[in-house]
Amino acid sequence: MNRLLLRQLKRATQLEGEAAVERLLAELKLRARTESFPSDMNRFLLGVGELLERVSASYDHHERDVELHSLSLALSSEELEAAQRELLRLSRSDRMTQLWNRGYWQERLQEEFQRARRFGQPVSLLIFDIDHFKRINDQYGHPVGDQVICLVADVLRTCSRQVDICARYGGEEFAAILPGTNEDGAFHFGESLRLKTEALGFSAGEQAVPFTISIGVAELDDSFPDAGNWLVRADHALYDAKRSGRNRTCRSSQSPR
Q1: How many CB atoms lie within 10 A of CB 42?
Q2: pTM to 2 decimal places
Q3: What residues form DSSP beta bridges with 177?
């Protein structure tokens, strides 16, 4: 009899769960009061009651495990999203300076060109490089040249606003898009950047390493048929800054076309 009842309890627990065990236990207690059962049946029923309590506790523990597992999955999903965002940022960033890289910056240049044309808002861009950079590499070594690049990137980051789009364009060359900024504002931004770079104190061992930058500025206007032409105009202004002595900011509007 006991073995049969145990098999019934086991089957009820596996197939139907805790509620089925409770129903079976109630039925057994009723039969114990109305029928002739073996003398040890009451002790058996008490043991079944204890078993039911352990089963119930086990279910509670299992539910907590399921809840914790679900929370773990949610955290893993958030971590996965964070990792994906970080990978996207790394794919768009210059490894040395942590500015945007050239590819991503050019995508943003196209976007800002279209946005300005659509809404008629002012936007300017700067392109600049480090003067006599090859001389710095030759005289002090490439590690010092890399430090100079990073210092200039830090100055650019300090001078720029959150909305500005700043990049290492390649080698010792940098670029920045300044939304909502006309040529005058961009020129003043460039001059602030140039003067702060010139004032930097940097030494390689006991040798001072002076360096400066030259900057070209171009505000977008209706004469530029596309974003590429806008960039060319800024590059021409940079060439003017180089040709007229370096360590200066030149405007596209003052450059011969």
Answers
A1: 12
A2: 0.69
A3: 125, 165
